[in-house]
Amino acid sequence: MSLKVAFHTLGCKVNYSETEALREQFRKEGFSPVSFNAYADVYVINTCTVTHLADRKSRQLVRRAKRHNPRGMVVVCGCYAQVEPDVVAALPHVDLLAGTTQRLLLPNLVKEKLQGKGVKRDVQPYGHRAYFEKLPWTPEQSRTRAFLKIQDGCDRYCSYCIIPLARGPLRSLPPQQALESLQEIIDAGFLEVVLTGIHLGLYGVDLTPSTSLAAFLDKAVRLPGLQRLRLSSLEPADFSNALITVIADNNSICPHLHIPLQSGDDTILHSMGRSYDTAFFRGLLRDLRNVLPDLAVSTDIIVGFPGEAEEHFKNSLAFVEECAFSRLHVFPFSPRRGTRAAKMVPTVPPAVKKERSNSMLILGKTLSQNYRQNFDGRTFPVLFEKIINNGEEKEFPTNMLLEGLTSHYLRVRVHTTSDLRGQLRNVLLQSTNEEYLEGTIQ
After folding, report:
1. Please, are residues 385 and 144 in contact by the beta-carbon 8 Å criterion?
2. 278-291 and 310-323 helices cross at what angle (nearest 10)?
3. What is the pLDDT of residues 376-424, one digit of tens each?
4. Is the pTM of this model over 0.85?
């Protein structure tokens, strides 16, 4: 009987792509993947450390795993383990921790640990000659979207961000290998592939000869069978004319971009160490929307950054409204040890951060609703992902309510008598007061 292994992922799309790869690696080594809520012999928690909340969730998941099986092995890997190995190693119930390197070795490390041998900690520091770790992956047919990581690392060192310490220097998967992996996913039947990276916009600059994301996309869109290619987060300063052109000229690239703003006030942007101001960001949105009028632009916003006075926050709120984002991800500032911002003053009181966060979230809901209304009465292809029943995802409901995504990353729900998961269908969209659109299959 094979050992059962369960996975839980926190954080960004890069983490999710890496968990998929780890799941396949464990399967190849004879483990049987199961749900994290099920009884398992091994629980693998792929962590995030962007905020204190992410760290807390990681600790909660360790306790949750032990409740499912008190004798089960708990493995903590990912960014939290990489940045705070001593803290994670000292947590009750953690049997093995690994960072963000050499993850191909993790199944064997688990096997050795189960046999009473091996180490408890396998966290390696990054050096200047870090390499891109290509994790072999056979896509699961149970999913409708596939994630492909083609870039890792960041050297931007924004004042608030711990990610360069967690992920190391810039590394890219060579274009030919990336294209072969992308074709493999397409041939497996996936209709949407999400390209991920820690600093995706700088894909290829570290390679010899150097290349660019625009050049890679120009080749990727020519692959036979490609339906949808979605890009994960792109930094504002990384949009070249060539990148804008290739996105605008190819219908297979989804017209949805996640571009982190972080603050709508120039003083705070400077304190954050961001490489642009609001005028630059405004011009970028203008250029993008000139060629893609329906473009969905989502963003990240930090509220309560050290030194953020009421005037700065009001400027940020007004600029966010002006930008007409399709979706906001709002984060109260969380000081991370080892970053410049952790020592910045004056700090913003927690109550004020909470109030500002709520104000920004309310604006975000309004902006999202306004954006969705632009699609009322229009027909777009929807890639169906899951069955919903009574507001929850179900496997075998009595009434079929399907949910899927448009290329603009709009959630759509449709009543139907057929299971269309994994299929693209044209749907007439109707705006609602909910966080999704309703639709009728055409």
Report:
1. yes
2. 10
3. 999 999 999 999 875 555 555 456 899 999 999 999 999 988 889 999 9
4. yes
